[in-house]
Amino acid sequence: MSATPEPPARELATDVLVVGAGLGGLAAALTAARFGHHVVLAEATDWPGGLLTAQALPLADGHRIELDPVSPGYRDLRERIRDFYRRNYPLRPEPYADPLLDPGLSTTGHLSHEPRAALAVVQELLTPHLAAGRITLLLSHRPVAAHPDGDRVAAVTLEGPDAKRLTVSASYVVDATDLGELLELAGVEHITGAESREETGEPHAAAVADPLDQQPVSWVFALDHRPGEDHTVDRPAGYDRWSAAFSWDTAEPGSGSLRSVPLFLHEPDDVPPWAAPPNDRWHQRRALARSRYLPGTFDSDITLVDWQQTAYSGLPLVGLGEGARVRAEREAREQALSFLHWMQTRAPRHDGGHGYPELRLRPDVTGTADGFAKSPRIRESRRIRAEFTVREHHLTAAARTGAPGAQTFTDSVGTLRSRITLQPGTGGGDGLDLECLPFQLPLGALLPVRVENLLPAGQNVGATHISAPALGGHCGQWSIGEAVGALVSYCLEHRLPPRAVRASERRLASFQGRLSDSLGIALDWPDELRTGPVNSAGVLYATL
Questions:
Q1: pTM here?
Q2: Contact 388, 444 (CB under 8 A)
Q3: Which of 286, 193, 343, 347 is nearest to 538 (CA)?
Q4: Higher-confidence residue: 143 or 265?
Q5: By CB neighbour count within 10 A (0-12 exposed, 13-18 middle, 19+ buried), where does 4 fall?
Q6: Type and span of the H or E element at 200
Q7: Which whole-number Å values give the CA distances from 85 to 153, 219, 463, in the listed order?
Q8: What is the phi/psi pair of residue 97, to 5°?
Q9: Which of 123, 297, 456, 482 fits a disulfide with 27 by CB distance 3.0 to 4.6 angstroms?
Q10: Which has the closest alpha carbon to 180: 436, 513, 453, 461?
Q11: Contact in structure between 366 and 56 (CB atoms under 8 Å)
């Protein structure tokens, strides 16, 4: 019997195709639409928003984000999340009036929230553009093929939830996927894993390059706490493989030394509403702090588990084929579920004894059947070979000793404040945590060396295994996407390829003027902040 032929793909044409509706893709689509261009925005899951929604990872910016010259678009996103809680939740008077409201009151970042709250805000941002027909949103659509034409990508074929295919042709294509999938599909020059010290000149680079040395992947899940109840999950089939390594110990970045961080330091209800959250596991990524709300509103806090114990480093997601990627994601989920079972049955309790059977999965929080995020939290992507590559020694305080700040870039398209944080990955090692000085985002890192009309809008920019984490957090992804959306808009209007903008001082100045004048984006740091301290992403080890 002959195989059933695939049905012909439907076709669609647009100005800009953005594949991946994470923070970078969302910002790129919104910015291009703001300037009047038609955008097709495709997302593999049914929740746009990426880290904030489908991956269930709340904002994790340090407290200085409130004072730094961050993108007005990113600041608006943050304020909309706060306003969503003020409009829809019965907050106590004090948090309601707090201009820096933190609904989750976590120890990681200063604006922790539920994935569904972020989803509502993302939908709110998209709605006027959807109504105007400037953005076409395709949910549950993943890229399966790209169609290069010389040094351009003419179109991308997407597969929807019904297995039907749609081929979208566009003047510009933006790869905002978590793994840089279009780079592979379209044959765009890229790199994976760890570069060598000889190649990059970075002090902490590996002696020998290893394309399979990649950061771990995690599958986040949501919990609440129900004393007196038993919500123990079934013992996973592969539990014995993982359980021997489980404990409350946390490895310190760089040194690998261990310290114990338990689930609770004391009874959760013993923390007064006005008190700072204790430095334990439960409060690390707490998304809803019931003490913030009127008495009787909630029976429990809600926390999101994204801890070292759930960071899977068995197989890389990129470089060993589709089968290995599927296996890695399956094993990452099994490791996380095994850790939950360990917490419920074997973990040392803060009040004596073992096991917290009262921990309950919350499927409603993640929008899934089992309480796990819709997609895994991915820390490393394929990265373009770019006109300019951001490296460790451009950013870190240690490498810039004696200099008046981080490396300056005349082609700046934004500013960022972050750290370089790597967890022990598929290549082993102790991880890394390096302080960065406040730095600029260079346009050259967004331009592939050859392809003219495909641009990155996520962790797939021109960076290294070492430096990429500094650009890949929530604010970094948004800032990259916003710059890319503005760039494709500028190029469409002026009929220029992106690299021509960077190659001409006049055109570069004109484009930078659009960023600063139309979008309010700061291109440099004030002198008083240029060498200021960088706040860690959190008091516990390495989340971004």
A1: 0.94
A2: yes
A3: 286
A4: 143
A5: exposed
A6: helix 197-200
A7: 42, 26, 36
A8: -85, -10
A9: 482
A10: 461
A11: yes
d(CA 540, CA 141): 36
Residue carrying the six token digits 């102790």: 430
| Nearest alpha-carbon partner for 17 in 128, 205, 124, 143 | 143
First vs last C-alpha separation in the chain: 51
- Provide φ and ψ at 162, rounded to 5°: -95, 10
Contact 507, 490 (CB under 8 A): no
pLDDT 10s digits, 280-315: 999 999 999 999 999 999 999 999 999 999 999 999
Structure tokens at 310: 């759930």
Q: For 367-418, what is each residue's pLDDT tens digit?
A: 999 999 999 999 999 999 999 999 999 999 999 998 889 999 999 999 999 9
| Cα–Cα distance, 59 to 379 (Å, whole number) | 15
- Cβ atoms of 334 and 238 closer than 8 Å: yes
Are residues 25 and 41 in contact, defined by beta-carbon separation less than 8 angstroms? Answer: yes
Minimal CA–CA distance to 218: which of 115, 305, 287, 280? Answer: 305
d(CA 357, CA 346): 10
Confidence at residue 86, expressed as pLDDT on a 0 to 100 scale: 98
Q: Are 233 and 371 in contact (CB under 8 A)?
A: no
- Residue 85 has a pLDDT of 98
Q: What is the pLDDT of residue 538?
A: 35
The rounded distance, in Å, linking the Cα atoms of 12 and 34 is 21
CA–CA gap between residue 162 and residue 146 (Å, rounded):
20
| Alpha-carbon gap, residue 250 to 258, rounded angstroms | 5
Given phi > 0 = left and psi -120 to 50 = alpha, else beta, which region is 431?
left
Instruction: Taking the CA atoms of 218, 219, 225 and 228 in sequence, report the sign of the dihedral they define.
Output: negative
Total count of residues recorded for the chain? 544
The predicted-structure confidence for 243-262, as pLDDT tens digits, reads as follows: 999 999 887 766 667 888 88
Round to whole Å and give the CA distance between 67 and 234: 47
Residue 199 CA to residue 307 CA, distance in Å, equals 32
**H runs (alpha helix) in 35-114:** 72-88, 93-97
According to DSSP, the β-strands at 302-305 and 432-435 are unpaired
Q: Are 153 and 451 in contact (CB under 8 A)?
A: yes
Question: What does the DSSP 8-state code read for residue 69?
Answer: -
pLDDT tens digits, one per residue of 92-148: 999 999 999 999 999 888 899 999 999 999 999 999 999 999 999 999 999 999 999
- Strand pairing of 419-422 and 432-435? antiparallel
What's the burial of 70, exposed, middle or buried (CB within 10 Å: 0-12/13-18/19+)? Answer: buried
Burial class (CB in 10 A: 0-12, 13-18, 19+), 347: buried
